[in-house]
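Support request, please re-run this one:
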Amino acid sequence: IVSLPRHGVKMSSAEGGDEGPSLWEELIKQYVAGTNEAEQRDCNLVILGNASSGARSLLARMAGKDIDDAYEGFALEYDSIDIRHEDDNEDENDIFCKINVWHVETPAHSDLLKVALPPEALAYSIVIILTDLSVANTVMEHVEEWAVRLVDYLKECWKTQKASKKAEMEDKILQHLAQIQKEAKEKAQAAAATQKKRRQRGMSLFSRQENVTVIRPKEEEKKEEVPEVQAQLGAGMLTTNFGMPVIVVGTKSDAVEDSGRAACKALNSPESNVKQVLAFMQGHLRKWCLAHGAGLVFTSSRKDTGIDLLMEYLKNRAFGFQLQQEMITNRHENIFVPFGYDSLEDIKKLNFDAIGSLDTNYSIVIHNPNNPKKAEGGGDDAKQGKSLKSILQKKFMLSASVKAFKSASEDAKVEAMDHQTFLRRQIELQKMRERTEYMSAFREFASGGKKEKNSERERQKAEILAQVKAEEQSQKGNKGAADSSDTRDAAQFFATMMKTYNSFRKTP
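Re-run finished. Output below.
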């Protein structure tokens, strides 16, 4: 029996006597029916990467070209990759299908997704999110930023599509996960059965040596209907379903150790912790991929490593080719974790407890090498708690020092959050004190005070009246002599003096 992948078209054997339709009859039937399967089998691949993420070099390697052919391009680029049968036939006429590749550069151009990823192409599209491993502190930032842009775009796409289409695509991802879990279970059962047979052979050999006959009952063959397998979602698995295959590709993996050393330097940590820094990076990437249903592949275009593995995984997700490679997590420069192979328990087996945990924010531990910080507690929750406690104690002491400067008559509460606020508040308090002293002195002067004699008060009133009268005479004598500005100034002064005099008269 000869079969064509994905089409399911079979040619019956002459010896079998099967009278089913031949291969050519089936092909002609499909052509007459006007099916578009031949056109829909092509895959639409969208690569999302920031500037200098190595996208063009990666694309050149995927297409079988040399990285010298990579060039500085535009915000949106297109290329295609021919896919042949699994027998690696180099015949140009033996092309099975092709991958249409779109590259969108930088999240600022995410509006171009409507060209590279139109709503009608979602069902047969794959998205690759690139992250530059040579800069450790931006590894998670680039992945999360592109994921947000992709989610926002998909929300707009679903508004124009039927709700059933979204549910169908999400269910397809769950079916893929269920198939992987089923194959893993069958593989484990086969391994257990093989081990059991080995033990039985050993027991039979031992029984022959002792001349003891061991009678074993024949096991009845049980034929049970295999129920439909459903995906089992473990802890932290597939909390976000894009409805399409997503692959996170770490580029420049040959420089990942150098980026780990730079991260250690920013942490003021010895270089002996490089392995823990790289394990911390791997753990957070795997945790994100587990939650978003994505695969993880590390590649290096300069050393041409991981490219074949990426292409094998692409063929598996796009066209159903068999995936031969198992999961790789023990080499920091060559990580490969297909979707459905990982679990939160396996991720927690990574050793990076000295610098952080999976619950620690990635940016807290991995800093910018150009802005080093002391790792106060690193990612350890207990040390972070101590650091927070010391900060709160400092703020409390500062607040207490501010309250010590407050006068007994002030009712306002002073809360100093930093030195600038403290100084600004002290200036305000000083002004309040001066204002209070001035007002009290003015009231005492206006009321005359208990110690002030009546004669002195009368003398002050007489002086004020004399000043007012003198001002009135000067205003009458200088008719037209002064300009409008002088008149306004004199009027203001006269009004001020009259208010003062009236206040004195009203004072008992």
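The CA atoms of residues 51 and 106 lie 6 Å apart. Strands lie at 2-3, 10-11, 43-49, 76-84, 95-105, 125-132, 246-251, 294-298, 336-337.
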